[in-house]
Design brief:
- Helices cover 26% and strands 13% of the residues.
- It contains 21 helices and 20 strands.
- The strands form five sheets. It has a seven-stranded mixed beta sheet. A five-stranded mixed beta sheet has the order 5-6-7-8-11, with no helix packed on it.
- The radius of gyration is 25 Å and the shape is globular.
- The relative contact order is 0.13.
- The C terminus is likely disordered.
- The structure holds a DNA duplex.
DNA sequence: GCGATCAGGT
DNA sequence: CACACCTGATCGC
């Protein structure tokens, strides 16, 4: 959480990422990115009133941030008062005091921050010196050095103050895996899972709104599978992202919001509930105590609602399989779901993963927590972990009853046709080029709107000017994003050539920026083959497959880190770049001198363990007893 | 009824 | 441990 109060000593008349208290008097506002903790007060009535009175007050942000912000009706009142500034374009702003007429000039330059789409750092230049406000940022080594506007005369500008995101300002975070490294790890893990069968699905447990688009687009592009999200209207003008997303649940990769399964019991409201599994450290009586208030037998004498929070701790519930379809009766006219998603849950942020191999999807969808399965053949009811996805703001506008929506859940893979067990891959490859977004307001899948699951390379949109491309989206800090950053072509060339040299695994990431027409140059048949016959294509996976056998144990979720979060365990896994590994030199990170660099095979082994839920004893993190 | 704030949760 | 949220309770307007 940012402790920044909104004002900088040098330029106290402007406010950045804070819109409350003292900031209500600001002459100009700046928003670095669209995360809630940087938007405090932004939609408060006090500020709204201020806007109505002070007609010269504006909010400055990147075009992508503006787009994302205005997607939410709650910020619509800002519409006429937001001025978007292009990345790396020094822009002069007059700071006028409306009461006295006093005026101050300031030049602001937006620098890509690599934190989430649209995220920027602000470089201010004025009479009180040059200051840099970083907001939340995630730049790879060397990226700052490549920012021309941070320099003048061949050297870095004389910066008076820097207001810095110090989240990882700690020696423990000496070595942070690059985005590229995280991506390749996740990518291979997801690939190894979903290529096992059409019923193996992955659920990405994304906590924040925005910031995972990099992962989505790259997974989608590499795997030829669109990512299922709840909403995508915020990306309607960002086809580079949009084309990799879908609201169609029949995909193998999900990043949708997950039902808060506390809803489950109160939704079905049975007469009685009998716990079949008693979680460690509690007793049957205690579980019953928790369950009872949610049953009709109890409610008749008791006031209505009792939060089910504690139910979440009951990790496993067993339900007779005969009853499941009754229990989870689907209010929507969709065919019965008989097939089973084998589920891999990834937490891209914390990246704690739990695999679930099950035979009954409904059970999977409804249980509470991924704990331990019973040793019998009976399928336990295994639960999910909440999935926060994009813009929560407009969620309440979704008129589909949440219980309906949620009950369909992210795991209802084969719901479209009862006997169509195999995803229709061909739809992934017939792609229209139109990038119009008509109808998106109704949140159809992009497949439905004529997009396809076929990966669209970022560079496809090069030159198109009718939309905001993710060129501006600073989520794109590395790899593809080099091309999509909207950085000048020189930087692209430099960066990409270094990648080329390295010839990493993340090939498509390079081609996106480097060869605009690559998509067309890939024979469709070949791409299909990659998807349909993954084992041929990824022979290394074959061996892995043999290692991960049948129904894996669902153990303690293992934590592995990706992105900015680096828990102990992860660091102990030494997630760093191997010198001959797949990482490109552009993702270079400082190595911890005494650190051992893991071999790729070793990493892969670890991924497998993680995917199957087996414990890896690398460094024992004391979980609860 | 709305918001701000806090506590607690993932 | 931090992030980026979310939910629920309480209080003030």
């Amino acid at each position: 959480m940012s402790s920044f109060e909104g004002q900088m000593a040098e330029y106290p008349t402007i406010s950045i990422d804070r819109f409350d208290r003292e900031n209500l008097k600001a002459r100009a506002y700046f928003l670095s990115h669209c995360h809630k903790d940087h938007m405090k007060g932004l939609r408060a009535p006090t500020l709204k009133r201020r806007l109505e009175c002070s007609l010269k007050v504006y909010l400055y942000c990147s075009p992508v941030t503006k787009e994302l912000l205005l997607t939410s009706p709650k910020y619509k009142f800002w519409e006429k008062r937001i001025i978007s500034i292009e990345i790396e374009t020094p822009t002069q702003i007059s700071l006028v005091d409306e009461a006295s007429g006093e005026k101050e000039e300031i030049v602001v330059t937006l620098l890509p921050a690599g934190h989430c789409p649209g995220s920027v750092m602000f470089l201010f230049q004025g009479n009180n010196g040059t200051v840099l406000y970083t907001g939340d940022f995630r730049l790879a080594k060397g990226e700052a050095a490549r920012m021309e506007l941070l320099h003048s005369g061949g050297r870095v500008k004389d910066i008076q103050s820097v207001y810095l995101d110090t989240t990882f300002c700690d020696p423990r975070f000496y070595q942070i895996p690059s985005r590229g490294e995280c991506l390749s790890g996740i990518l291979e893990l997801v690939r190894s899972w979903i290529t096992r069968s059409p019923y193996h699905v992955v659920w990405l447990n994304c906590k924040a709104a925005y910031g995972y688009e990099y992962l989505f687009t790259n997974l989608s592009e590499e795997l030829g599978v669109q990512i299922h999200v709840d909403k995508l209207d915020m990306f309607r003008n960002m086809p580079d992202i949009l084309h990799h997303l879908t609201t169609d649940r029949s995909t193998q990769i999900h990043a949708c919001r997950h039902p808060k399964i506390k809803d489950f019991l109160s939704y079905i409201c049975p007469v009685n509930a009998y716990p079949n599994v008693i979680p460690l450290g509690t007793t049957k009586d205690k579980v019953i105590e928790i369950l009872q208030p949610l049953c009709r037998s109890f409610q008749s004498t008791e006031p209505k609602y009792k939060p089910l929070g504690k139910l979440k701790r009951a990790r496993t519930i067993h339900v007779d399989s005969e009853e499941e379809d009754e229990l989870f009766d689907d209010p929507l006219p969709v065919p019965l779901r008989h097939k089973v998603p084998y589920q891999l849950i990834l937490h891209p942020e914390v990246f704690s993963m739990t695999t679930i191999s099950q035979n009954q999807p409904e059970k999977l969808r409804q249980s509470t927590g991924c704990f331990k399965t019973e040793s019998t053949q009976n399928s336990p009811l295994t639960n999910f972990i909440d999935c926060e996805e994009s813009n929560s703001e407009s969620e309440e506008e979704l008129e589909i009853p949440s219980s309906v929506q949620e009950d369909l859940g992210p795991v209802t893979l084969p719901q479209q046709k009862v006997d169509v067990d195999v995803p229709q891959w061909e739809v992934f490859f017939k792609r229209k080029d139109d990038t119009t977004d008509e109808g998106l307001e109704n949140f159809p899948s992009s497949t439905e709107t004529g997009g396809s699951q076929s990966p669209k390379l970022f560079s496809d949109s090069d030159g198109e000017s009718t939309h905001i491309s993710s060129q501006n989206s600073s989520q794109s800090t590395h790899i593809t994003e080099q091309g999509s950053q909207g950085w000048d072509s020189q930087s692209d060339t430099v960066l990409l050539s270094s990648q080329e040299k390295n010839g990493g695994d993340i090939t498509s990431l390079n081609k996106g920026a480097y060869r605009p027409k690559t998509k067309e140059s890939i024979p469709t048949s070949q791409m299909e083959q990659n998807v349909l016959c993954p084992k041929d294509t990824y022979s290394d996976l074959k061996s892995r497959d043999s290692e991960i056998t049948t129904v894996p144990n669902i153990g303690e979720p293992t934590t592995l880190s990706c992105g900015k979060h680096i828990p102990e365990k992860n660091r102990s896994l030494n997630f760093s770049t191997h010198s001959d590994s797949q990482s490109s030199s552009d993702f270079e990170i400082p190595s911890t001198p005494e650190a051992e660099l893991p071999k790729r095979e070793h990493l892969q082994y670890l991924y497998e363990k993680l995917a199957t839920g087996e414990n890896i004893i690398v460094e024992r993190k004391n979980v609860h007893s």
